[in-house]
Specification:
By secondary structure, this protein is an alpha/beta fold. It folds into 2 domains: 283 residues, Glycogen Phosphorylase B (Rossmann fold, 3-Layer(aba) Sandwich), CATH 3.40.50; 209 residues, Glycogen Phosphorylase B (Rossmann fold, 3-Layer(aba) Sandwich), CATH 3.40.50.2000. Helix content is 44%, strand content 19%. Bound molecules: adenosine-5'-diphosphate-glucose.
Length: 500
């Protein structure tokens, strides 16, 4: 089992010439660890840095992770230029905004595409030396769409599967991508393509029909066959999730119970709305703040009785568009607090700082309303985490109809169009006045769905659909010695003893 993602599941830091590594805490690591552990698994990805690092040093830093997690990390190194053109450029200035329907935010720099392909070739070169026939390669997300094609070019004939974590746009948006046909062709090199929702899979097949009119689709269930000339692939929609039982357990723990109580004590009788978003323009943060402002203006009974806690998780801080967004949010929060604050009440408590997991779950549990209104989102795990953390059965989820998670939770949460301040305001009032029994019923329904379709369900079903294999079919085998020297890519090295 080989997992390939843009980033390795670790964070590397340098201080005074000393490198340290912190294990990533994302859901993907939790979900995939069981299939990699003790099965000789390998995770390939970029280290996230562009600095030169001696081999001895990188091994010293990565080996403890392997020892602890039971699988090996294979690093890909990018130069500054590659990072700028491949990662910040094509991935995050073109595909990311376009696939979230935000075409006016795209920068179609002609140099980006070649760099995108070149970095995918680099990944292919790194992987090629470490895989053998029978290996299953599972590639993640929009940064690495051309990887299957690059691996095939190198003669790899094994099973290649892909999961897209972000939405797939409809044809009238996709058509704006200057390398549109190349990208579709690249996707067709996978034996299986997984999407988050039916909406995304449909958009994909609609695009295929536009650019390859001979496209034939067979089947109507969760997995379909796609035939174009002599090319055949399969596609499915499999919503990603979180470790549901873990959220339920942690939310009921003594530590979280105490922290929840402390949060509630801080706000007294006031009702709490809670939002946590990665700082990103797709998350609809200014639109949500304007919706809250509209609620305060239109429904005076909210003044002094409701507080919105807006937690922002820093992200892509060096990209100018994210700076501008941060400034816009800062300004809006200041404006709203300036307009409505009184001697003992501030409407928005705004935080741009890290929050540890128990504190995050305590906030979910303490909040009367989870306000999650992305302009478009592949899935949105925060919505699921909020529901699973309702140990007191009292929260109401207000969710954007354009989040992938709305497909699963839409019947039991309050759906809003994130572009409508009026809808957001009315949903806030509706959530705050919802009877207790109704809240319980809605939470019960959503929890049932999420307990069944948790992240382990997602992994199992992805493996079944893409490889026709059960988790148990991946042989437990003795680990390749964890500290065995990684095979070095001399072509990718500036000097023998250093990786760049
Ligand atoms: P993201 O856009 O990052 O993911 P999301 O799905 O909401 O969005 O996941 C955010 C994660 O960050 C959640 O698991 C949350 O718990 C975590 N988090 C929240 N606050 C944090 C904090 N203070 N510190 C650290 N972590 C925090 C992309 C797509 C989504 C898709 C996921 C998974 O954009 O649509 O759901 O991948 O496929």
């Amino acid at each position: 089992m080989v997992i390939v993602s843009n980033r390795l599941p670790i964070v590397l830091r340098e201080s005074n010439g000393q490198w340290t590594m912190q294990k990533g805490s994302g859901g993907l690591v939790t979900a995939l660890s069981p299939i990699l552990e003790n099965r000789g698994g390998l995770w390939v990805g970029w280290t996230g840095i562009t600095k030169t690092m001696p081999i001895g040093e990188i091994k010293k830093v990565l080996d403890p992770f392997s020892l602890e997690s039971g699988f090996r990390l294979l690093p890909v190194f990018l130069t500054e230029e590659e990072r700028d053109l491949f990662y910040y450029g094509l991935s995050n200035e073109v595909i990311w905004p376009l696939f979230h329907d935000l075409q006016t935010r795209c920068r179609f720099d002609p140099g980006y595409w070649d760099a995108y392909l070149a970095v995918n070739r680099k990944y292919a070169r790194t992987i090629e030396r470490h895989v053998r026939e029978g290996d299953f390669i599972w590639i993640h997300d929009y940064h690495l769409i051309p990887l299957a094609e690059e691996l095939s070019r190198k003669g790899f004939e094994g099973n290649l599967a892909f999961f897209l974590h972000i939405p797939f746009p409809p044809p009238d948006i996709f058509v704006k991508f200057p390398w549109r046909k190349d990208l579709l062709r690249a996707l067709l090199h996978y034996g299986f393509i997984g999407f988050q929702t039916l909406r995304d899979r449909r958009n994909f097949t609609d695009c295929l029909r536009v650019f390859f009119p001979e496209t034939r689709i067979e089947g109507r269930g969760p997995i379909i066959r796609i035939l174009i000339g002599d090319v055949e692939t399969r596609a499915g929609h499999l919503p990603i999730s979180v470790d549901a039982e873990e959220f339920i357990r942690i939310s009921r723990s003594k530590e979280v119970t105490e922290r929840t109580q402390a949060i509630r004590n801080d706000f007294g009788q006031r009702r709490l709305l809670f939002s946590v978003d990665r700082l990103d323009y797709t998350k609809g943060i200014p639109e949500k703040l304007k919706g809250f402002r509209h609620a305060l203006r239109e429904f005076p009974e909210l003044k002094g009785t409701v507080t919105l806690i807006q937690q922002l998780v820093p992200s892509r801080e060096t990209v100018p568009a994210y700076h501008v967004l941060k400034e816009e949010i800062d300004r809006l929060v200041g404006q709203i607090n300036g307009e409505f604050s009184t001697g003992d009440w501030v409407p928005i408590v705004y935080r741009y700082q890290p929050m540890d997991r128990p504190e995050l779950i305590a906030h979910y549990r303490a909040a009367d309303v989870g306000l999650i209104t992305p302009l478009k989102d592949g899935m949105n795990l925060v919505a699921k985490e909020y529901v699973l953390s309702q140990a007191d059965n009292r929260g109401v989820l207000v969710l954007s109809e354009f989040a992938g998670s709305a497909m699963q939770l839409g019947e039991s949460c309050l759906l809003v169009n994130p572009y409508s301040v009026k809808e957001i305001a009315e949903a806030i009032v509706g959530a705050l006045s919802m009877p207790g029994e109704e809240k319980k019923r809605r939470l019960r329904n959503m929890r049932k769905t999420l307990r069944h379709h948790d992240v382990f369900w997602w992994v199992r079903n992805f493996l079944r659909a893409s490889a026709g294999r059960e988790l148990e079919d991946f042989p437990e085998r003795e680990l390749t010695p964890l500290s065995a020297p990684l095979v070095l890519e001399s072509k990718d090295m500036m000097r023998k003893e250093e990786w760049v």
